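Morning!

This is the sequence you dropped in the shared folder:
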Amino acid sequence: MRAIRRLYFYAVSFITLEIVLWGLIRLLRSIFSTSQIGAGGDALAQALALIFVGAPIFALHWIGAQRRRSPRSSRSRRTRWRWQTAPSSPRRDWIPTAPSSAPARPGRTTSSPSG
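The structure's back. C-alpha coordinates below.
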Protein backbone atom coordinates (compact mmCIF):
# COMPACT_ATOMS: atom_id res chain seq x y z
CA MET A 1 0.00 0.00 0.00
CA ARG A 2 2.85 2.40 0.79
CA ALA A 3 4.51 1.70 -2.54
CA ILE A 4 1.31 2.46 -4.42
CA ARG A 5 0.82 5.69 -2.45
CA ARG A 6 4.42 6.74 -3.10
CA LEU A 7 4.04 5.92 -6.80
CA TYR A 8 0.86 8.03 -6.93
CA PHE A 9 2.56 11.04 -5.33
CA TYR A 10 5.57 10.85 -7.63
CA ALA A 11 3.40 10.31 -10.75
CA VAL A 12 1.19 13.31 -9.98
CA SER A 13 4.29 15.38 -9.17
CA PHE A 14 5.86 14.45 -12.50
CA ILE A 15 2.70 15.20 -14.48
CA THR A 16 2.10 18.56 -12.81
CA LEU A 17 5.75 19.51 -13.26
CA GLU A 18 5.30 18.89 -16.98
CA ILE A 19 2.15 21.03 -16.96
CA VAL A 20 4.02 23.89 -15.28
CA LEU A 21 6.85 23.59 -17.81
CA TRP A 22 4.37 23.66 -20.70
CA GLY A 23 2.80 26.74 -19.15
CA LEU A 24 6.21 28.43 -18.94
CA ILE A 25 6.97 27.58 -22.56
CA ARG A 26 3.59 28.97 -23.67
CA LEU A 27 4.17 32.07 -21.56
CA LEU A 28 7.55 32.70 -23.18
CA ARG A 29 6.12 32.09 -26.64
CA SER A 30 3.24 34.48 -26.04
CA ILE A 31 5.59 37.16 -24.73
CA PHE A 32 8.22 36.90 -27.47
CA SER A 33 5.95 36.00 -30.39
CA THR A 34 5.03 38.82 -32.79
CA SER A 35 2.86 36.77 -35.15
CA GLN A 36 0.07 36.14 -32.63
CA ILE A 37 -0.91 39.73 -31.90
CA GLY A 38 -4.68 39.07 -32.00
CA ALA A 39 -4.60 35.82 -30.04
CA GLY A 40 -1.94 36.96 -27.57
CA GLY A 41 -4.44 37.46 -24.76
CA ASP A 42 -5.85 33.95 -25.01
CA ALA A 43 -2.41 32.33 -25.19
CA LEU A 44 -1.23 34.38 -22.23
CA ALA A 45 -4.31 33.44 -20.18
CA GLN A 46 -3.87 29.74 -20.96
CA ALA A 47 -0.20 29.85 -20.05
CA LEU A 48 -0.85 31.60 -16.77
CA ALA A 49 -3.68 29.19 -15.96
CA LEU A 50 -1.39 26.20 -16.49
CA ILE A 51 1.24 27.74 -14.23
CA PHE A 52 -1.09 28.94 -11.46
CA VAL A 53 -3.02 25.66 -11.30
CA GLY A 54 -0.10 23.28 -11.82
CA ALA A 55 2.41 24.83 -9.43
CA PRO A 56 0.43 24.43 -6.16
CA ILE A 57 -0.63 20.90 -7.07
CA PHE A 58 2.98 20.01 -7.86
CA ALA A 59 4.21 21.56 -4.60
CA LEU A 60 1.67 19.72 -2.45
CA HIS A 61 2.35 16.34 -4.03
CA TRP A 62 6.12 16.78 -4.07
CA ILE A 63 6.19 17.77 -0.39
CA GLY A 64 3.90 14.84 0.41
CA ALA A 65 6.16 12.44 -1.49
CA GLN A 66 9.24 13.74 0.33
CA ARG A 67 7.58 13.36 3.73
CA ARG A 68 6.55 9.81 3.02
CA ARG A 69 9.99 8.96 1.64
CA SER A 70 11.86 8.98 4.96
CA PRO A 71 10.14 7.01 7.72
CA ARG A 72 12.77 8.23 10.20
CA SER A 73 11.51 11.80 10.04
CA SER A 74 7.90 10.75 10.66
CA ARG A 75 9.02 8.64 13.59
CA SER A 76 10.87 11.58 15.13
CA ARG A 77 7.80 13.78 14.66
CA ARG A 78 5.68 11.13 16.38
CA THR A 79 8.14 10.90 19.26
CA ARG A 80 8.33 14.67 19.58
CA TRP A 81 4.54 14.84 19.69
CA ARG A 82 4.42 12.21 22.43
CA TRP A 83 6.93 14.09 24.53
CA GLN A 84 5.04 17.34 24.12
CA THR A 85 1.69 15.83 25.04
CA ALA A 86 2.86 13.39 27.71
CA PRO A 87 2.04 14.35 31.29
CA SER A 88 5.02 15.70 33.13
CA SER A 89 6.64 13.53 35.76
CA PRO A 90 6.53 14.66 39.38
CA ARG A 91 9.33 17.03 40.15
CA ARG A 92 11.79 16.17 42.88
CA ASP A 93 12.97 19.13 44.83
CA TRP A 94 15.26 17.15 47.05
CA ILE A 95 18.29 15.02 46.36
CA PRO A 96 18.50 11.85 48.40
CA THR A 97 21.73 11.59 50.37
CA ALA A 98 23.29 8.79 52.32
CA PRO A 99 22.62 8.88 56.06
CA SER A 100 25.43 10.22 58.22
CA SER A 101 25.79 6.89 60.02
CA ALA A 102 26.58 5.05 56.81
CA PRO A 103 29.60 2.78 57.04
CA ALA A 104 32.81 4.00 55.50
CA ARG A 105 34.27 2.38 52.46
CA PRO A 106 36.37 -0.69 53.08
CA GLY A 107 40.00 0.12 53.80
CA ARG A 108 39.27 3.61 55.04
CA THR A 109 38.73 4.72 58.54
CA THR A 110 36.70 7.65 59.63
CA SER A 111 38.64 8.33 62.79
CA SER A 112 41.80 10.39 62.86
CA PRO A 113 45.05 8.44 62.99
CA SER A 114 46.38 8.00 66.47
CA GLY A 115 50.02 7.97 66.45
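Headline: The helical segments are 2-32, 40-69, 71-85.

More detail when I'm at my desk.
O.
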